[in-house]
Structure formats: C-alpha cells, structure tokens
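Lab notebook, bench 4. Still working through the backlog of constructs that have no structural model yet. Next entry is a single chain of 230 residues. Request: give me the structure tokens for it.
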Amino acid sequence: MIEIDDLTKRHGRRTVLHDVGFTARPGRVTGFLGPNGAGKSSTLRVLLGLDRADAGTALIGGTPYRRLRRPLHTVGAVLDGSGAHRSRTGRAHLAWVARSNGIPRPRVAEVLEQVGLTGAGRVRSYSTGMGQRLGIATALLGDPAVLVLDEPLNGLDPEGIRWLRRFLRARAAEGRTVLLSSHVMAEVAATADDLVVIHAGRVVARGTVEQVTAGHASLEDAFFALVEPC
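Model written out:
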C-alpha cells in the first residue's frame, strides 16, 4: 500500500505541495492526475526518496522509501525513461541492474519477455515506446508488490497502449498496488479503479472513477471542471 499523509514541500518561498494526502491500495490501479505544474512529480519524487518533504509522510508498505532494505524488491518505478546507456543493449542494462540488486540473472530474460523486448538491440536504436518498455522491465526486475509509473504511455503506439492497460490490470488482479500518473484521460478512465486529482499543489478530488466522474460525461469533463477556474 502507498500512504501519503499531509505532505508539504517548499521550493524556497514557494509551496508546491499543500498537505497532500491519499492512499493507493493493493489490488487496484490508482490514477494520479493533474495539469503540468500541479505537483504530481514533486509528490512522486518525495514518495521515491528523491526529495525530502518539509512536512508529512510518504510510505510504501508502512515504510519510507529511504528505509527500505531491498527497494527494488518492494517498489518498481518509472519516472524518466529507462536510464540506460545508449551504447548498451537492453539485456546488458537489465543484467547490470539485476546484479547490483542481488537479483538472479534468469529474471532478466523473464522481464524482457513480459514487456516484449526479447531480441531487441542496443538502446540507441530504440523508439520512444521501446524505451518506455525497457523502463517498465527495469521496474519489474525485483518482482515488486508496488508499481509507480509516471507517464508510461508516452511514445507507445496503440498496440503498446493496449498492452500496458492489460498488463497493469493483470498486476492489480494479482493483489499488487499500481499508481499511474498520466495525461491520457481516456486510457486512465479505462485502466484505473481509483483516482486522485491534484491542482496547484492540493488534492481536489479522490475516490473511485465513478465517484470522481459523477455528473460528467467523461473523465476529461470532470477533470477540467476540477482544475479550470470558474
């Protein structure tokens, strides 16, 4: 489970997160939505131990990320692509990550097959979508109970988008926690069970997809009603 409670983050005199709080539960896909600059990335960076909060807590399985004994075995994250060196193959990149985290080498072939990259060459030849798949493969190496994905749909073609939707639903069906940040409203509506909407550093809505979209024709309509000034 992901538990974020009263999270506050300041950059100088500017407060970018104001008492942000929500829960992403096992067995469900939670969509994390907000316009650019709303605070999504700041929230995820604090959650994953990349930034420190000025107040509040962000816990994964009841523990701050920085205190996890085996982070890759607990949470897999995709924030800024794969992070792989362009001269390496995807397989070599994954083998290095696996070795540095005490993960058996056969796991590399398993995750490459899961994301459809078996036989792919050097990272420099990858399309944007293939880079996204390699990032997801890296996140899966430790077979984590929690997945945190920031804009994983970028660069995916229609087949890739359908694959990712089915993949995330299958992970949730296994009892895992999935937190999905994306601007692709229709796909979030088709994939997520629960939604959190953040605007100007504050949570403006949270609940099931049905609860958040109640009274609106679509998730897109509900989103703009929440984040656009009256």
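Notes after review: The chain has a mean pLDDT of 92. Residues 2-81+146-227 form a domain with the Rossmann fold fold (CATH 3.40.50.300). Flag for follow-up if needed.
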